Amino acid sequence: MVRTRGFVGVLGFLVMAAAACLAADKEHGTLVQESPIYVSPDLRASRVGTATRGLDTLLMERSTIDGKPWAHVLVTIQEGLIYPKQVSGWVDGRYVITASVANGDQIIFGEAQDSERVSEDRNGRKHAGEDAARLYYRLYEYFPTSPLAAEALWHAADLRWQLEKSGVFSRPSAQEMSPDARSSIDDTFMKELEKKYPRTKWSDLAAYDLLDNKICGRWKGETRCPEKESELYEHYAHDHPQSPKAAEALYNAAWRQAALVDMYKEQHQADKAEKAKRKAIEIAQEISGKYPDGDWKPRASQLIYVLQQGLMTYTAEKSNR
Amino acid sequence: MKWSHVALLMFLATVSLSAAEAEERQRATLIREGTLYSKPNSGSDQIAPLPRGSDLTVTERNGPPDNLWLKVTVAGRQGEPAREGWTQGRALITASTQNAEEIAYGEAVDSEHEAEKRSGRRSAADDSARLYRWTADTFPGTPLAGEALWRSADIDWQIARARGRKPIDESGMKEVMTKYPNTKWADLAAYEMIENQLCADPTAQASCAEKNAGVYEQYARQHRQAAKTLEALYNAAQQSGLVADIYRVRADKDRSAAAKKKALSLAQELADGNTSEWKTRGVDLLYKLQQNIPLYGLEQEQPEQ
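YS: structure for the whole thing
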């Protein structure tokens, strides 16, 4: 029995190895709809796993059986806590999009947008955000010359970033002041984006997200946190003046200076409070002058008024992220 | 002194007095939470809290600029009588405050952001709606007014939806459409109001999905330049695709084919467009329809027994 098991194991390995060799010159593709993976092209056949949206597949062959299109694929899947495993099987052929499908890039991008919208719905599909991130990344991988590639890589990187950020900032280590006290958000995709598409709107957005790894967890009433953060945001705004985030960064810088006014006043450091007030007003006026459209100008006007009237900006709970 | 001179002097005095009175009787609001006191000092009786965005009328001023107290009338809500009392002046802006519309609007945006935070201030959404409303009512001629009124109505709409009120009160949206007809804001208000006409579960009934598709398409045809035109068109295409699925499952081939044809034509309209988000979503939908990939939860095909 042990011998038979060993033989079956070796045979299984050989089948997988043969499938992998066959796949070497095959097309990559992804699914735009979740599908069970069958051992043979038959809806009654055993299922060996589930292929999710955005999963990278190697398309080995397509065939039509009784009018139903099938795709023979090799995929690496991870279900539950089990180690990732390579699986070869058959999925619904209509769901597999490769570079040779007409408008394949737009189909994948559209499906990713759809998944992203679903993820924002409270009653939306579970893991829709992860589906969207995978789909966006596949577009960038399979269609590097598509006009949508850079934007897709940005969305893929940002979705992963936001998912990881919510985890990192919900841990107790995020209650510490120093950003070094918590684990950093993985910046691999953001760096890839900055390298592949430098000086674009997307690299500007990536640079803004990357600031999350540098900001404090909690300020704990210490002035060095808002001082450092104000500098970071102002620096970003001046380095990336065309960024869609430039006005927001300036507002963040001004708001931190306004918070410093309250903190210095509390510490009876009138000179520093006055200096921070002047700086906050100066930055807020820069927003009004440079970014007259949208919400940032009224927000800057409100901040200037609050400072002029000596109203409080900073409260302990407002500084918490 | 001639009588005519006396009359002129009296006239000028009257004019300047009414101007001063008008300046004193000004519409105002708060950009921080305040309190209504019985007298111009914080040791007096507290009459009521004054939330951000309260609609106030200033009737009297008292004290130096750095410790200014204002006698205000607070408009009563829904039949309640108006109340009168004193509040501190620092967080109060009047119609004549420089950049008042921007300050109130900016505070409204700030409160709206606060409302979106998990640990945000509890009353932030209501504060925001009040501040937007105050901006729109006090400065109806400014560029921010239309958007402020729309945002105020939208927040009220979202709050009503979250509280499960059906149908949602349309008065705020109708006001936007009446006061700012043929604008981006009127178009957005009309789109929001579609929600009251939709069937709750279109996946259950073809007639329901058909009705929804019709409502969305009608909006798209009537509001061709709206920010929501393409979204409405996409929803119409998707609902038509759903109708096709429902009839297909019921083996009603003719009706399924007719609905699919309609869905395909709407999706093609999107795919032919230039706007990236709805173009790509249109292409994706078109592909699914062409490949007969079922939409929604009707996709799991079962093997024939």
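YS: worth flagging: Residues 100-170 of chain B form one domain.
IM: good catch. Also Chain B touches chain A at residues 31-32, 90-91, 93, 97, 99, 102-107, 109-110, 119, 144, 271, 276-277, 279-285, 287-288, 291-293, 299, 301-303 (CB under 8 Å).
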